[in-house]
Amino acid sequence: MKKIAVVIPAYGESTNIVELCHEVLKHLPHTDILIVDDSPDNLTVDVISKLNHPQVTIKHRQTKGGRGSAVIQGIAECLKGEYDYFIEIDADFSHPPSQIPALIRQAEEENLDLLIASRYLPDSKILNWPLSRRIFSKCANLIAAALLQVPVHDYTNGFRLYSRRAAIELTKSCGKLGSGFIALSEILVTLYYRKYAIGEVATIFANRIRGESSLSRKEIWNAFTGLRRIYKLKRELSK
User: Fold this and answer.
1) pTM (global) more than 0.90
2) Handedness of CA 121, 168, 182, 213 (dihedral sign)
3) For position 209, what pLDDT does the model report?
4) 3-state secondary structure the chain
5) How far apart are CA 31 and CA 55, in angstroms?
6) In this predicted model, what pLDDT tens digit does every residue of 56-76 receive, in sequence order?
7) Neighbours of 90 (CB within 10 A)
8) Averaged over 105-125, what is the pLDDT?
9) What's the Rg (C-alpha) of the chain?
10) Amino acid 182: pLDDT
11) 210 or 26: whose pLDDT is higher?
């Protein structure tokens, strides 16, 4: 049986993190879960401490380092164990834990190093996402595809599986160009141009409704400046 580690980056997720852990363990009873928490308070740490489950641990960071750095740090920590595959999944139920066993089966059958649960395959669905977010995400992915030329449909969804050798590579090489979601594209480009096997599978992305939210100019600027840095990386790796 393959050994699996699930890494969950979290920020202010104390109200649903325990339920998510239960849901992951329901579908993958023998996995270990590491939560990397950047919350400004200790609420998430407190609820996980009360859960007191031997397969669930939490690492609380003192400052908000960004989703990408949380995943990379979490995978680096898990590499100390003898895990075969590493799953990253969002803490807010945007990604279905029920799909994890299928990801593992597909990765094994196709001998993949990276398997992306893609929001933009024909059979995928996106639920509860504001129009502004849909437009921004789709445009960002189209621009990324044109610049980075990796044959996938979704550069930035954070529901992924990595093989052990891919996990070693990404912890060694990635996290230098941005700490947020841009790290997902950095990882993708690094693995693809270093000849790791990459695949995609359809998924359902269900955005949690949190009331009104707007897309800031800063977020847009960070995304596109990050893509410019990754384009430079792509050119270096593809020489």
Assistant:
1) yes
2) positive
3) 54
4) CCCEEEEEEECCCCCCHHHHHHHHHHHCCCCEEEEEECCCCCHHHHHHHHHCCCCEEEEECCCCCCHHHHHHHHHHHHCCCCCCEEEECCCCCCCCHHHHHHHHHHHHHHCCCEEEEECCCCCCEEECCCHHHHHHHHHHHHHHHHHHCCCCCCCCCCCEEEEHHHHHHHHHHCCCCCCCCHHHHHHHHHHHHCCCCEEEEECEEECCCCCCCCCCHHHHHHHHHHHHHHHHHHHHHCC
5) 7
6) 999 999 887 888 899 999 999
7) 19
8) 97
9) 17
10) 85
11) 26
- CA dist 135 and 128 (Å) reads 14
Place of tokens 């699996």: 4
- Dig out the tokens for 152 from the structure: 């996938």
Q: HSE (CB half, 13 Å, CA atoms) of 214?
A: 3
Please tell me the total number of residues recorded for the chain in this structure: 239
CA distance 211 to 113: 37
* pLDDT confidence of residue 170: 97
Output the six-digit token pair for 179: 């700490």
Task: Report the amino acid identity of residue 70.
Answer: A
Give CA–CA dist 229/177, Å, rounded: 7
